[in-house]
Amino acid sequence: MDITRLYVGKRLSEVAIHNGTVYLAGQIAEDTGADIDGQTREVLGHVDRLLAEAGSDKTCMLSCQIFLADMEDFAGMNAVWDEWVAAGHTPPRATVQARLANPDCRIEIVVTAALR
Q1: SS3 of 110, please?
Q2: Residue 114: which H helix or E strand, with range?
Q3: Cα–Cα distance, 97 to 79 (Å, whole number)
Q4: How many CB atoms lie within 10 A of CB 78?
């Protein structure tokens, strides 16, 4: 069984690659003082970077889970998402409200993608 892990830490790896599939850990913003637009842009930037390092990109997303601290941010998050997601390559997606581990985070995104 061949598994490649990137950015391996004591508690989690940011990326696991197995059998042609890329699994990302939940991505959060470092700038937790930003509004939902800023945090969403930053998180999607993390997704872009990690997918590229793994040999994939957003056009290869197989699924996406979005966790919002407050559903009041749904429209703002969607506005940024709609600018970012590749037309014709929108993945199956779920968006839920959840209490996030860091109360200053407004959004966390988990992506699974195929390798290019």
Answers
A1: strand
A2: strand 107-114
A3: 17
A4: 15
- Distance from C-alpha of 6 to C-alpha of 14, rounded to nearest angstrom: 6
Measuring CA to CA, which residue among 74, 68, 57, 31 is closest to residue 111? 57
Cβ within 8 Å of residue 67, ≥6 positions away: 26, 95, 96, 97, 98, 100, 107, 108, 109, 110
Which amino acid does the sequence have at 41?
R
Crossing angle of helices 74-84 and 36-54, in 10° steps, is 40
- 98 CB contacts (<8 Å, ≥6 apart)? 67, 68, 69, 108
State pLDDT tens for residues 36-91. 999 999 999 999 999 999 999 999 999 999 999 999 999 999 999 999 999 999 99
Q: Is the pTM of this model over 0.90?
A: yes
Tokens of 25: 């850990």
CATH code for the part of the protein at 3-114: 3.30.1330.40
55: left (phi over 0), alpha (psi -120 to 50) or beta: left
Q: What is the DSSP letter of 27?
A: B
